[in-house]
Amino acid sequence: MEAPQDIPSNFENGFKPFLKSLPDDTIVYVIYIIDSKLADAQIRSRLNIVLQAANVLIKKYLKDYIWQRDDFKLALKREDGTWLLRGRSNFGDSSADEWLIVYLIRELSKQYPDAWMRVSDTDGEFLLIEAANALPKWLNPEIAEHRVWINKGELRIIPMEKNTSSSRNLTVKQALAAISSSPSTLIHSSLIEEEAFYRIRDHPKAISETLHYSVITIPRRIAYILHEKPSYISAATEAFYLRDPIALRPLQQDSPSALTFPPTDFISTSIAFTKVGYAQLKSQEFPPPQSWQNQLPKSASAKEATGVEIGMKLSCGFEMLVSDPQNQDKKDVREIMLLLEDIESGEESLPTDKQIQTWSHQDDNDAWLDINYEDFERELAGKTAPKATKKETGPSAGFGDKSAQENLRKMVERFEAFMNDEDAGAEGINMDDMDFDDDEDDDEDEEDTDEEDKDVSFDEQEFAKMMREMMGMPPNDTSSAKELTRKVEELDSDSDDEQEVDEIRKLSERMEQELNESGALNLDPTPRKVRATKLSNGKGKEKTSEDSGEDSEDEGGEVDIDYNLAKNMLEAFKGQTGMAGPAGNLMGLMGVRMPRDEQDEDDK
Questions:
Q1: How far apart are CA 532 and CA 378, in angstroms?
Q2: 3-state SS string over 83-127?
Q3: Residue 85 forms beta bridges with which residues?
Q4: Where is the signal peptide (predicted)?
Q5: 200, 222, 244: which is the final residue of a domain?
Q6: Same domain, 168 and 69
Q7: From the CB of residue 5, how many other CB atoms can be counted at a distance below 10 Å?
Q8: Per the structure, how many domains does the chain have?
């Protein structure tokens, strides 16, 4: 079968060999047993043992976990005469779900040395995309399919064949044969592995950090349903978040009693959200629909009002979920309707106020949603932050959560590396054989376009200058100052009025002094290296990578290059309003996946 025509030239563009078979936001995971001594029936038995071990891991780590869409599930299958375990999960907007699956697969591989596992998603070999900066030159997207495997908790890569005239992708059979015949030749690089598994470095501790508990006000029927199975909240949240005018029709009724979940009999209780789901509910503007007009309970404080508003949004999500005919065959909807039928028939009863008081009342701080740009600047600069109060000290101190901070720093590091790479210019790119398009195309229009492109010139220095200005980085030269000096020299040689020349010279010196103070004439194009402040055990103790002397200079008004770069990059991405644009494309080339845009408070 012929390879797709539009394969990107590097991993940071993404690699999509499964584009025709996988929907968006989907991860596929496969497990093989490779042991030449085992017969076919023995391999099947071995896989059943691995399947049981996977269920043990699920019970161990995922007891209270809430998936955004699909959960982790393996099934025994037979493909091309080989037994294997295969699973597929749609993780939606929650990349945490995808990386949790990677963690489970890696932990499973540690228990069974003869089990060889691989993961891929809509982008293809996404583990290599994560490790793009550490990959050898020969390992490009055109030959990477089926070469990346996880065994004994390590990342293994099948090397390129020595006796082949051209590079090519491997089929599954070829990959399994290579592993079986010569497993010792597989490449294991600690650097590649560290980059590929970077996002699961804090697992399993990070698993519990994906949930957010909040006290909200909701109808008693919904509280009962969520108490029976907390995972129903994901489907209801998504129904609200992806709503359309047709889905809103049931909520436009004049009579609230006609609703499946009428806005009556309210209670306040703690509900477990995924962080993605909580952000989706809180961030959207949604006035009460017709059926909820004048039905909301009164709030004594701003915090209670927030709980009432989120509860209203969640209740509307449940109503849209069960009312949409397209959802009637979904497992969650069928189960919810059965619970409601049991209540109507009297087989089950709604919880009393006394019972609800015994439930959890955990109410987490949602400061992780906010980014304070002053804290953000200090974090990047490695400066000592002001002493935090008891309320501010802890996991919520600083801007966003720890993961957001580290992702932003990594974005800045990759962009700086890109801008300072002397080999990354238009004339300095090192091309290998796989970077050239070897497809034959006789289209005359394309040939005409190529001839026109020859007349187009590219000014590399001008492009670099524009990029640096856009990102808030310092200029790479002092052409303005040199031009001013040249004019002074001309005046000095041609003018007979020495007094006028002295005045111009003094003016030039003052201008140069001001430019030096602002850092505009800094001849060192390399951005200064900084480390972010680290919090120790959430107690507000901080470590800095710069001495107090350097800090005092920074506080004297020097522009923080890293801060400006990241701030301008995020603002440029936000300006795309969720659509494709130069900022998103540029960061995509460097392997940075930008978050979805959220509307600022000022825009509301």
A1: 8
A2: EEEEEEEECCCCHHHHHHHHHHHHHHHHHCCCEEEEEEECCECHH
A3: 31, 76
A4: none
A5: 200
A6: yes
A7: 8
A8: 3
Residue 492 included in any domain: no
Which of 156, 171, 200 is the endpoint of a domain? 200
Residues 142 and 262 in one domain: no
On whether both 158 and 214 belong to a single domain, the answer is no
Residues 247 and 319 in one domain: yes
User: Hunting for tokens 């005239």 — which residue is that?
Assistant: 165
Given a cut of 90, is residue 447 above it in pLDDT? no
Residue 150 CB-half CA count within 13 A: 26
Rounded to whole angstroms, what are the CA distances from 415 to 346, 473, 475, 492, 588?
A: 62, 11, 16, 44, 11
Prior bond of 141 cis (ω within 30°): no
7: Cβ–Cβ under 8 A, 6 or more apart, which residues? 15, 16, 141, 142
Residues 122 and 32 in one domain: yes
Q: Do residues 324 and 196 both lie within one domain?
A: no
Q: 468-511, pLDDT tens digit by residue?
A: 665 555 555 555 555 555 555 555 555 456 676 677 777 777 77
pLDDT at 1 over 90: no
Domain shared by 29 and 167, yes or no: yes
For 335, the token pair is 């189960």
Q: Residue 549: pLDDT above 50?
A: no
Buried b (16+ CB within 10 A) or exposed e, 539-550: ebebebebeeeb
195: domain range?
Answer: 11-200
Phi/psi-derived region of residue 472, left when phi > 0, alpha when psi is between -120 and 50, beta in every other case? left
In a domain, 143, yes or no: yes
In a domain, 509, yes or no: no
Task: Say if residues 151 and 113 touch (Cβ distance below 8 Å).
Answer: yes
Both structure tokens of 162: 């020595």
- Banded model confidence at residue 391, pLDDT cuts 50, 70, 90: very low
Q: Where are the alpha helices (DSSP H) in 438-495?
A: 444-454, 460-471, 479-494
- Tens digits of per-residue pLDDT, 448-460? 545 444 444 556 6
Residue 215 neighbours by CB under 8 Å, 6+ apart: 268, 269, 270, 271, 307, 361, 363
Nearest to 143 by CA among 124, 130, 115: 124
Q: Are residues 55 and 102 in the same domain?
A: yes
Rounded Cα–Cα distance for residues 220 and 267 (Å): 6
Instruction: Kindly state whether residue 434 falls inside one of the protein's structural domains.
Output: no
Answer whether 0.70 is exceeded by the pTM.
no
| pLDDT score at 482 | 54
pLDDT of residue 354: 94
